[in-house]
Specification:
By secondary structure, this protein is an alpha+beta fold. The strands form four sheets. The protein has a nine-stranded mixed beta sheet with strand order 6-5-7-8-9-10-16-17-18, with helices on both faces.
Length: about 350
Amino acid sequence: MTPDTAAARRTLADRLEADGALTSPALRAAVEAVPREPFLRPGVFVPAGRRWRPVTERGADPAEWVELAHCNRSLVTQLNGQLAADQVSAPVRGFPTASTTAPAATVRMIDALGAEDGHTVLEIGAGAGYSTALLHHLVGERNVTTAEGDPEVTHDRVIATHAVRRIPHAWVRRTRPGGAILATVGTWPEGAGLARVTVHADGTADGRIIGRSALPPVRPDRPAPPVGNLTAWAAAAEPKRLAHASPTLLNEPTPALLTQLSFPDAKFTVSIGEDLESIYCLSTPGSVAEVADDTYGWTVHQSGPVALWDEVERVLTAWQEAGRPDLTAVRLRITDRATHYWVDGHPALRWDHATV
């Protein structure tokens, strides 16, 4: 027998409202009306030491399943790019490659989207489907399209339910003049900002980062050593030097996002070495930089045609000299040729990304 989760939904709505994530009465009504547990099927993985314990609807204690379904946190739904919770019966090792979005992040995005009853909404990536169900309740089922591919169809609102490296101009073309696009820009662990842009009749869009975001990319990067032969990489690398800026700054949202704007296609990982030292690794095709915490302090080891960490230090220094502005200071403008990002009054904090 399926348990009645109405009370759990009300409790979740209360929690989201108390945290400031839920402000719209219409959206609260959607949270209270839409069950979340169907969107966790076939199951999830929860941490169990260094392993992941599978929890499925059929195998779990009903109370645990309801609690998981209505908790305010992201839940892992896939390991290693293929393993689902219903495929194993005991804790396993693995790397998370898919997850649900925490309810607070979902409702914050929908609230910021400003969608109203009767609006047409294009949702890029439905994920588990919970956000789609909330949008259906909010604006009407017939008014929500997920990943619409028809270039002749436009929408009042576009929302992306996963992080992207940049907002494609194709999304701008799918949106009516005066409409809005809401998307998480940035795929690094801490460097993600929620961008809201307004579309204009000339095919451009502009706006700003309105706050932090916690949405994952479609597939997160796996921690990995530099590409190629490690011995050859070490031999070709520049001599080690002390870092002029601590890489721990990249654990903060604003410097992580600003640095990522310099390398939108770079892979960034943080790992633990054999001697339990922290290792920050940044890599692009042909270039790599490692910054490790050793007995001399943070040391830089980099190679390739681009001195990646030199640019990281330039951005971090420019951000500090600008007075450490919050990520909400970042503006952006999208055209059919490029996406431009900048912080007003600080020419050193400007980036131009050609449309791909």
